[in-house]
Amino acid sequence: xxVSELLDELERKSGISREELRRKIEEKIRELNxxxxxxxxIYIVARELGVELPSERRKIKISSILPGIRRLNFYGRxxxxxxxxxxxxxxxxxxxxxxxxxxxxxxxxxxxxxxQVDYVDKGKIKIGSVVQVIxxxxxxxxxxxxxxxxxxxxxxxxxxxxxxxxSAEELExxxxxxxxxxxxxxxxxxxxxxxxxxxxxxxxxxxxxDVDKFLYIPTLMDDGTGVIRxxxxxxxxxxxxGKSLREVENIPxxxxxxxxxxxxxxxxFVVQGRVRKNELNEKLELVASYVNPLxxxxxxxxxxxxxxxx
Length: 310
Description:
Helix 2 (18-31) packs across helix 3. The chain has helices spanning 3-14, 18-31, 38-48, 118-121, 168-175, 234-241, 245-249, 253-264, 296-309, and strands at residues 72-81, 85-89, 92-102, 107-113, 130-140, 146-149, 155-159, 189-200, 206-208, 213-222, 227-233, 268-277, 284-293. By secondary structure, the protein is α+β, with helices and mostly antiparallel strands. The strands form two sheets. Strands 1, 2, 3, 4, 5, 6 and 7 form a seven-stranded antiparallel β-sheet that branches. It has a five-stranded mixed beta barrel with strand order 8-10-11-13-12. It has nine helices and 13 strands.
């Protein structure tokens, strides 16, 4: 709805004059240091007056949220919350926490920054909470999932429970499941593959952002049916390499590629993660979220079960 339509609806439902509503909205914008749009302020004022505006609850399937959408409005249930990460950039301290919000169709990651982290830290938002995101924008996150940013003008609000949403347990199970597939059959979404590292791409292997520093190892894996680029970040990169970030930093930069290749080439892993399309080469790649060396005993039991069930 446009601003004029929102004001009409708020005036009708609240019984407050247009002039008084405008005053409340202007006060709210000043109170939030002009970091919110007029539309966002209207929604906040409406909530404080106990009025629900029609467009607030319009149902957008989360699976339809693609990177690049602006003025995004949707609701869903929080089924996973990351650890709160504290950082110090140029002497300025900050905090960030990620919410994973889903419905029956899909999920998105919603980062909360600095003061917004209080929603989680003070227990206002917890696993199972139903939240509404207003006036946000979407982009692709580092790990291939869709990420929704509130930015300066977005809002997040806590709703009463909505019965048609799956429970947090159902969402966690649905979006944490990984089906074992051959590399030739990999499609966008969650997948588990088993393969050998046949190439390690040249890189600095150490990525430094405004928030932190971590290992990044891009590889190529082969299972005999095909090959796929597999990317290991952070703790998973340290795990497959068998070295910590600090230890890799101590290796001279001109020697790192040789070291990484010696430690990874030919190794066989079971890898779970999210498959996405690389925008530069249009090929599929897998961003790892779990990795383990292949356990031949465990794989033998799995094969026996498949034969018995087949």
